[in-house]
Amino acid sequence: MSKRRTSLKKIREIMRMHEEMGLSNRTISNATGVSRPVVSQYIKDIKSAGLNSNEIQNMPDDVLLEILSGKKNKGNDRYRELASRFDAYAKDLKNTGVNLKVLWEEYIRGNPKGYSYTQFCFHYQVWKDAAEISMHMEHKAGDKLFVDYTGKKLNITDRATGELMPVEVFVGILGASQLTYTEAVLSQKK
3-class SS at 167? Predict the structure, then answer.
């Protein structure tokens, strides 16, 4: 079974339920879907850091994440060194041709005794999942259509001459149904 980190939003909710509502760990566990031992551990970790529910509600995510991961990885210099690179890795992954394998190869060249590729990916994914912020958007059917051209050009082959012609790819997506329309055109002009 893979180990998943609880979102910071849920951790804040666990502390709010514990302190403000006075609920038991079992009740909090049932309400949040987080196991009772994990609920207990988060409450213990936050209290041992000298924090309460009100303080962590307005605390920046990276600070809370540092407090919680610092408890679990205390004394682990190898993890701290890797975790300090995650922000830079997240930015690098937005570049064309960069993936976790490339980043790991660069990491292992500088740290021959560093984490294996699978552990490197696991730690990055746990960090990313815990720090990720998302928002669900509702769209009324037929209300919005999102359109754009893709960034990279593709090529089509002229059957008669065998010549490769660069084409732009137009994409349209309906907001509610996510139905997608694509078309290759010679230019972005009408």
Answer: strand
Which regions of 44-138 does DSSP assign to beta strands (E)? Answer: none
Distance CA 168, CA 185 (A): 5
Cβ neighbour number for residue 18 with a 10 Å cutoff: 22
**Helix (H, G, I), strand (E, B), or coil: what is residue 9?**
helix
Q: What is the pLDDT of residues 150-168, one digit of tens each?
A: 888 899 998 999 999 999 9
- Low-confidence residues in the chain, pLDDT < 70: 1-5, 69-76, 131-134
Per residue in 129-142, pLDDT tens?
Answer: 776 666 777 888 88
Rg (C-alpha) for the chain, rounded Å, is 24
CA neighbor of 46 nearest in space, from 13, 21, 23: 13
Rounded CA gap, 85 and 92, in Å?
10
Structure tokens at 96: 């064309």
Distance from C-alpha of 3 to C-alpha of 123, rounded to nearest angstrom:
10
